[in-house]
Amino acid sequence: MTAFSASSGGGQLALDLTLDPDYRASSFAVSEANANALALVNRWPRWRQGHLLLVGPAGSGKTHLSKIWSERAHAIVLERDRVERSLSRVTRGTSVLVEDCDPGVDEPGLFHLLNRAAGDSGVSVLLTARSFPGDWPVTLPDLVSRLAAAERAVLHEPDDALLRQVLEKLFRDRRTPLGAGVLEYLLMRMERSVDFARRLVAVLDNAALARKGPVTRALARDVLTALSGE
Amino acid sequence: MKLTIERAVLLKALGHVQSVVERRNTIPILSNVLIQASGDHARLTATDLDMEIVEEAPARVERDGQATAPAHTLYEIARKLPDGADVTLELGGDDPRVFLSAGRSKFHLPSLPPGDFPVMPTEDLAVSFSLPAEDLARLIDKTRFAVSTEETRYYLNGIHMHPAERDGRKVLRAVATDGHRLALAEADQPGGASEMPAVIIPRKPIGELRRLLEDLDDDIEMSVSEGKIRFRLGAAVLTSKLIDGTFPDYERVIPRGNDKIMRVDRAPFAQAVDRVATISQEKSRSVKLSLSDSNLVLAVNNPESGTASEELSADYSSEELSIGFNARYLLDVAGQIVGDEAIFEFADSASPTRVTDSGDPNAEYVLMPLRV
């Protein structure tokens, strides 16, 4: 958590009382930044070669989208660095999710997994990553070519409409009480990234809890200043 | 309706129900208590629409029926009547008022139609079990001080209660937090409680419940659904709506690996905190704890009202540490500790501190520090 000095709150620090994020399909905010990716994920099980690569920056909705898919496809989750040893769990018709593939992926394991998906085993695989495979430190030539040919769903940094929905969801997830006009105030001034929105909401929520009140415009201004000075 | 009831019995029953009634009500009938007479008892009901207390008391009923009368006024009258008096309550004939008589005292009190009195809809409270009154009182006492009073975070305005397991032992757990501190207490899980949904019981019924528990040694019966909770305590039944919200994942904020351990005698510690806090700032009530080898110094530095310090011996052998807390929070926790020692587990001056009780393994507390 970013250390925001809640000095006007008398210096009291607050517990980090987060709630479980809401990953329901109905709460996934859609805009031009992610509509194509959503459509591609929803085309399952008609993915080319039985797999799909979901790429987007931190906080762009990879986890949310993959949770929605996992629920629908009853997917199992394999750890990226131990795919091979879990392959016995991947039987005919299994759906598999492997998250955050860019660093340290188990290359032989992933290669075998993608081969199964490409065959007629009915196996589906959703991979998520922050960057495109060309930037992953993968050395196994067959895997490099498989990944290069993989169908891709791309999540972009949010446009204004999406940022508003994201901000609303983040505050809703934490049940943060908001003063009048705070959302608009933040939207006009904040950095345009979901990653920043997450940090911003976490710090604002914590500071409001420390002060035992809602997020006011004054608090929003102080926190924005503190975060942009980092 | 006409009934006669002993003054002490009436006073006790009214005492149990009348505090539910708010002093100011926009709906007039909510200021009244519903009196229903039948068989050999009177049944008194008070409600604020979110909670209701019903109490039955023995009475000599001459004429079955029901009436409503102003709750606080009736209570004050009963309080001022002489001990041992018989009180007669009557409604009937052309007079729309309730007539109360006891010895030479006579009152005519305004009444409202009993048919207008709001009755809490009965619903199936699927999970039901009984537990010792003492256990429920303990769960409340150990946690209620940490319940938030900030209305905007409504989901913190109550005690979160749910079945849980600790080290293989099934428990009924109560948790409260206002974001600055957290209190958790456990009792043996009563048979049948494992199916209980996780609930948040609002502050007001908690207060009423605690008062009703004062006079009780027996087991109480607890019935729960997703939206309501009911406690049957002797002759009284308290039913309340629950807070419709999700309690945060509190277990994440209880630090389990803090390695700087201080054991301190509870009573001298609490007294010293109270003394030095005399000059702390009204708002933050900041007290700094400075720990070194077997030594604890409590200090307050207030630019307006001076400085204070007090030294205590403490069992501490980790590296030196300075950490600030709100004195009120330290005293609240110290007030709950029943053993001789309070055990503080620190990480650093900006992280949550866990406090446990040498005399009660079934309670723990978390305090967030103040920057000092």
Automatic annotation (TrEMBL), chain A:
GO terms for molecular function: DNA replication origin binding. Signal peptide: none annotated. Gene3D superfamilies: 1.10.8.60, P-loop containing nucleotide triphosphate hydrolases. One of its GO terms (cellular component) is plasma membrane. One of its GO terms (biological process) is DNA replication initiation. PANTHER family: CHROMOSOMAL REPLICATION INITIATOR PROTEIN DNAA (PTHR30050), DNAA REGULATORY INACTIVATOR HDA (PTHR30050:SF5). This is Chromosomal replication initiator protein DnaA domain-containing protein.
Automatic annotation (TrEMBL), chain B:
InterPro entries: DNA_clamp_sf, DNA_polIII_beta, DNA_polIII_beta_C, DNA_polIII_beta_cen, DNA_polIII_beta_N. GO terms for biological process: DNA strand elongation involved in DNA replication. It is found in: Cytoplasm. GO terms for cellular component: cytoplasm; DNA polymerase III complex. The keyword Kinase does not apply. The keyword Cytoplasm applies. It comes from the Bacteria. Keywords: Cytoplasm, DNA replication, DNA-binding, DNA-directed DNA polymerase, Nucleotidyltransferase, Transferase. This is Beta sliding clamp. PANTHER family: BETA SLIDING CLAMP (PTHR30478:SF0), DNA POLYMERASE III SUBUNIT BETA (PTHR30478). Residues 1-121 form the DNA polymerase III beta sliding clamp N-terminal domain. Residues 131-249 form the DNA polymerase III beta sliding clamp central domain. Its main location: cytoplasm. One of its GO terms (molecular function) is DNA binding. Confers DNA tethering and processivity to DNA polymerases and other proteins. Acts as a clamp, forming a ring around DNA (a reaction catalyzed by the clamp-loading complex) which diffuses in an ATP-independent manner freely and bidirectionally along dsDNA. Initially characterized for its ability to contact the catalytic subunit of DNA polymerase III (Pol III), a complex, multichain enzyme responsible for most of the replicative synthesis in bacteria; Pol III exhibits 3'-5' exonuclease proofreading activity. Forms a ring-shaped head-to-tail homodimer around DNA. Belongs to the beta sliding clamp family. Residues 252-371 form the DNA polymerase III beta sliding clamp C-terminal domain.
